[in-house]
Amino acid sequence: MADPLEAAISDRIAALSLADEALAADAAGTIGTAEIVRRATSREAFEGIATVPIGALALYRRLRAASALAASPVAYAAATSTDQRRMVGEVEVRTASEEGVTWLILTLAAGAVPTMMELLAADGRTARLVLDEPVDGVIQMGLAAADPISAPAVALLQHPSTAIFLI
Amino acid sequence: MKLRYWSDVAQREFAALFEDRDYSRPFVDAVADAIIRGWPPNRDKPLWALALLVAALAATRPEGRPDPAASLDVLTLSPTEILHRLLTAEGPREGALAIHPGGTKVRLVAYEASLVAGRTRIAILKKLVEFLIAADGFAHAAEVMAILDTLADPATFDEPAFRGAVRALSRRLYDYRKAHIAEGHATSGFEYVKRKLGHIREPADDDLLDLWRAEDNQHFVTYRMALQTAFAFLSMRREMEERGHLAASASVDEPGVERILAAPVDGEDDAEDGPAGAVSALGFAPVLADASEETPFAGLKSSALKTYTQAEFDFCDLVVSAWPHGERYTLSLLRLLAFHPIQSGLSNSLRTGRSKVPLETRVTCVEAMTYRDIDARVATLAEKTAGWLAVGVSLATPDSQSERVAAIRAQGVAILSRTRSKSFDVPREALAARFAAMSEDLVALARLLGAVRGAIAKVERPPDPHPLDPTFADDRNVFAAEFARRYLAGERAHG
């Protein structure tokens, strides 16, 4: 018969060693749930592309949608092969491509004015664009293809499966 | 000799839980305990508690209507915000789920399960759910979120859903452990402790030290872990023997006896925790009840008032990690307080490759606090604590009823007048309220420090006197030799 103390002491060793070994090894780039939550609810701008782990994507999308003014999972109509038109909540979002520049046009409805757009690709890549002030209910911004800050966002924007959040 | 129990994945994922801010070591231990052992004697108790918490948060949403985002509250709200919502919201007082606010803690009840939770317990439950979601690279995040959704929706929250949720989450923790720990290693760790201590009735401090420094120690990297395992072994053994005596003397035919023997010996708050009858077969009393309840001094640490430095909290946390056993094993406690910070520094500098002090110097323990230093530090902390208590008195009792109170008041007023911390620049009423909120923790700390001082004083006295200075010098040689063997040899092998 196994010693009745065995299970209890093995458990104690397991718990103590988990804390000991983890603190000695550190997270080494592993992303925790708290970090996913922080990113998905933050309004901080960042440059370039951040990546959400695939497994955490659905959770990230839900959290982002819950804290956004409006969200749209996918485009319902592609105007051309690259240009998009879709409704994000009551905001119409269009892109128009010219050589070297992509125009982003948001036609706002009444209500809160978004200050940022977050783009979330199906593979977990995410980018944020700080929006200009609207003029007569319309935000129009030129995103230069050569601009290292906006270029990754443009690539995401042109893909119909990219989720768009207005925050 | 590479000692390890957990996989790389588990080490990183557990470490990632604590990246969002600084957490004390007792808190990290409490989270590991909740994941691995539950809240003894009930392994699933934290999961019952988590299920209750998610349901209660959904029932107290300010919008007052079901919302698909309800299950996210446990993730997005801070422990303070969660507690505030439960303490102030007009939640149900009866029915399937009942919420009873009370002071700084809330009591949640559903389907024979109940939970008393303060801020720290809520913080532990938050880490538990974060762990469940992120485990195995978020592979089970969808499954866990679906369970939370069921709990957070009044339309689906019923007894089978509640029990099913706990069972499914329990299964997740079980599978994780199975996949990531070298189980045989943990078992042989037990065999090792039993071999070393099993035959000794009352082990001495040196027996506990030997557990770590012995040639055949393949199980404990840190002295701290060896000591804590030894303490767990000794108290569980005593617990079992006491139960054994009771069982032997009671009549087997007495129907109530077995139930009484199996009942948890638990804190008041805990007495009704957990589902009825879900006591584990052994019914161990929580050997480290502190780990599952509020971590000590939570009120002092979370207060806006800066009463103690981080270094002072760290010191007290280390004392608490070996208390109350440290009262009987005071020399072991002194060794922990003096040399654990050195070992912790060694493993940090090996991990980061950075060190203020060269490794070769650090292993010699020149940085270690002497036992005399530790004694002085405890005295200083005790004095400081008495001072804060006096400040509390001076704020709470404007009129002195007696000479003694007047003297304490005067002391408090004097301390307050020379306190320069900006955190004290608040109106008198606010200051008084903050001191009142800390008073229980201050009294607990004062008691602890008093007991530690008494215990250290006994070390130097008969029947087994260990004068502090020569004992420290001897111990430093022992630890220095052991650190050199473990950390310098490894360096050379890598270099």
TrEMBL record, chain A:
Protein name per UniProt: Uncharacterized protein
Species for this entry: Acuticoccus mangrovi
Higher taxonomy: Bacteria, Pseudomonadati, Pseudomonadota, Alphaproteobacteria, Hyphomicrobiales
UniProtKB/TrEMBL annotation, chain B:
Record protein name field: Uncharacterized protein
Source species: Acuticoccus mangrovi
High-level lineage: Bacteria, Pseudomonadati, Pseudomonadota, Alphaproteobacteria, Hyphomicrobiales
